[in-house]
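Recall the central idea of this unit: under ordinary conditions, the amino acid sequence of a chain determines the structure it adopts. In this exercise we apply that idea directly, starting from the sequence alone.
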Amino acid sequence: MDYSKAFAISASGMTLERTRVEVASLNLANANTVAGPDGKTYQPLRVVGRTAFSDAVTQGLAGPSVAVEPTLQSPRMVYEPGHPMANARGFVAYAGVDPAAEMVTLMGAMRSYEANVAAMNTSRNMALKALEIGGNA
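Accordingly, the structure predicted from this sequence is:
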């Protein structure tokens, strides 16, 4: 059996999930940023994995095609008339990040990463056992 494909699938999954963790962390870090003088706020990002499962098997260790795209979420308007960045009506534009959704994404990505590590370790143990059995014959 060719274990390199099993390793490639786990490695591509770990790459995707690591990117999801990084993007969710970036979104959480910018959740309370306000619009700058130009009126633009931080645009939350999302991770899109573009590789199908069959492609991951055939392409080997090339890895998944991971794209990071803006969500185009509208800013969150909060009434704070005393804030220095408030508009004429007293509203401040914060980044349109949902902290609860980002935490759920972060936890799910961490669990998926752990599952990919477990799958890779299981494949490694199977390959080592096969070598051990083959060496005793």
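Strands lie at 45-49, 66-70, 76-79, 91-94.
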